[in-house]
Amino acid sequence: MLICHSKNMESHSVEKIETQNQIPQIMEPSKGTSFFRTCFNGINALSGIGIISVPYALSQGGWLCLMLLFLVAIICCYTGLLLQKCMSVSPSINTYPDIGEFAFGNKGRILISIFLYLELYFVAIEFLILEGDNLQKLFPNAKIHFGCVKIVGREVFVLLVAIIILPTTWLKSLGLLAYVSVGGVLASIVLVFSIFWVGAIDGIGFEEKGVIWRWDGLISAISMYTFCFCGHAVFPTICNSMKDRSQFPKVLLVCFLLSTIIYGSMATMGYLMYGQNLMSQITLNLPAGKISSKIAIYTTLVNPITKYALVVSPIATAIEDKLPLRKSKFIVSYFIRTFLVISTVIVALTIPFFGYVMTFTGALLGVTVSILLPCVCYLKIKRPSYLEVMFIGMILVFGSSIAISGTYTSLKNIISHV
Predict the structure, then answer these.
(1) What pLDDT sits at residue 233?
(2) Where on the phi/psi map is residue 205: left (φ > 0), alpha (ψ -120 to 50), or beta?
(3) Cβ atoms of 369 and 115 closer than 8 Å
(4) Which tens digits make up the pLDDT trace of 147-186?
(5) Using CA atoms, how far apart are residues 388 and 215, in angstroms rounded to an integer?
(6) Which string of DSSP letters, residue by residue, matches 185-226?
(7) Pairing, β 149-152 against β 143-146
(8) CA–CA distance, 150 with 158 (Å, rounded to integer)
(9) Where would you find the membrane-spanning parts of this chain (predicted)?
(10) Bridge partners of residue 364, in order along the sequence
(11) CA-to-CA dists, residue 35 to 24, 177, 251, 281, angstroms
(12) What is the mean pLDDT of residues 56-80?
C-alpha cells in the first residue's frame, strides 16, 4: 500500500499531502504568499474533522483536561518551529521527507513517508465513518436491497459516499478541489456558531456540570487533541511559499492561537451542553429537525467529500511513481485509486468507531509525525544547547508515553467492539 520512491517524485507527492485537517495551499508560484495569506493556509491546515470530536475528548478527561489541550497546542507549535529550523540548514530541504533524508539518509525519508501516508490513509477512513454516521443521523431509515442482500443504516451511506467520491480520485489535477476545500476555516466557524445556536436558542442550554478529572479517559483525550493539531506534513511547504520566511514563527503562533481558541470554544460549549452524554461526534447529539442542527451536520458533511481525493492522491501517486509500467500506467492509475477507495470502505465498514479510530490515528501517527520525528530530526541536524536538549527530552518522553499507551488503549477498544 505504501511504497517509497525516488527523491524527486516523492517530494512532488508529499507537497500535496493533507492530513485529517489539512487544506492545500493556493498561491501564485511567481510571487509567494503574504503573511495574511500564509496564516489563512496554516489555519486551514489545522482546521478539520477534529473539531466535532474535541467536546467528546474533553468529556473523556474532564474539565482539567482542557489544560492538556493547550499543552498539546504549545508542544505542536514548538515542534513546527523545529521543522523550520531544520529547513534553514539547507536550501535543498523543501518537504518533511527532505528533512528526514538530511538527518538520517534515505532511511529517514522512507520512515517519514510511511508515517505520512499511513496518516493520510486513516484520515480517509475517518472521512467515510463520519459521513456514514451523520447521514444516518439525518436519514435513520435508509436501506437498500440487492436481491437477497439488504444494506441498512450507515453502511448505505458509506457505500453511497464512496461511489460519489470515486470519480474525484481519478482526477490528476486537483486544483478545482483545492479551491473548493479552501473554505475549511469558514466551515469551522459556521459549525461553532451552529452549535452555539443549538445550545443558546434551541433549548439545549449550557447547564451540564461534567466532571473535574477522569484518569481512565486521559490518554484518549490527549490522543484526540494531538489529532486536532497535526498539520506538520504541510508546514515545510507552507513555509517555502512565503515571501518572507523569517515571519513563519509568527504565522505558527497566530495559527495555533486561533485554532486553539476554536477548538477550546467548541469543547467547552459541547461539554456544557451534553456533559458525559457526548458521543464521539457532537453532531450526533444534536436534536433532529432543528435548522441549526441541519446546518451543523451539512457543514460537517461537505468538507470530507471535497477533501477525500486530496488525501488519497499522494498515496496513489507514490505507488504509481514506483511502478515500472509505462504503456498501461493510465489504466493502472485508475485501478490503484479505485482499490484505495475500496480498501478504505472495507476498513470503515469493519471498524466504524470514529472516536477509537481517531484516538489510534492521533496516538500512533499524529504523535509520531507531529511530536517525535520533528524532535529527533532537530537533535540530529542541529546542535542545541543543553537546556534545549533537556526540554526536547521531556517532550520525547511525553510523546512516547502517549504514543504507546494511546495506541494500546485504542486498539483494545477497537478489538473489544468489533
Answers:
(1) 87
(2) left
(3) yes
(4) 677 777 789 999 999 999 999 888 765 555 455 445 667 8
(5) 30
(6) HHHHHHHHHHHHHHHHTSS--S-----S--STTHHHHHHHHH
(7) antiparallel
(8) 14
(9) 35-55, 61-83, 110-130, 142-164, 176-198, 218-239, 251-275, 295-319, 331-354, 360-379, 386-408
(10) none
(11) 16, 24, 7, 33
(12) 96
| pLDDT tens profile 297-353 | 998 988 788 788 888 888 888 888 777 765 667 788 889 999 999 999 999 999 999
Residue 216: closest CA among 392, 62, 22, 101:
62
Q: What is the DSSP letter of 282?
A: G
Grid-cell match 495559527, residue found: 255
3-state secondary structure of 140: coil
pLDDT at 123: 92
State the pLDDT at residue 183.
64
Residue 227: pLDDT band with limits 50, 70, 90? very high
Q: Do 240 and 24 touch, CB atoms closer than 8 A?
A: no
Collapse the DSSP code of 152 into the 3-class scheme (helix H, G, I; strand E, B; otherwise coil) and give the result: strand
| Beta strand extents in 42-183 (DSSP E only) | 143-146, 149-152
Cell reading at 347: 476498513
Contact 204, 282 (CB under 8 A): no
Crossing angle (nearest 10°) for helices 54-61 and 248-274: 70
Q: Is 36 exposed, middle or buried (0-12, 13-18, 19+ CB in 10 A)?
A: exposed
CA 48 to chain CA centroid, nearest Å: 6
Q: Report which of 83, 49, 70 is spatially closest to residue 257, judged by C-alpha positions.
A: 70
Statement: residue 62 has pLDDT above 70: yes
C-alpha cell at 10: 516523492
C-alpha cell at 113: 513517508
Q: Where do the H-state alpha helices sit in 216-290?
A: 218-228, 235-240, 248-274
Cell 486553539, residue located:
260
Q: Is 321 strand, coil or helix? A: helix
Contact 23, 39 (CB under 8 A): no
Cβ atoms of residues 121 and 1 within 8 Å:
yes
The candidate with the shortest Cα–Cα distance to 376, out of 361, 389, 363, is: 389
Decide if 228 contacts 358 (C-beta within 8 A): no
Dmax over CA atoms of the chain, in Å, equals 69
Q: Residue 266 is placed in which grid cell?
A: 467548541
Judge residue 137's burial from the number of C-beta atoms within 10 Å of its C-beta, 0-12 exposed, 13-18 middle, 19 or more buried. buried
Which residue type occupies 229? F
Distance CA(115)–CA(377), nearest Å, equals 14
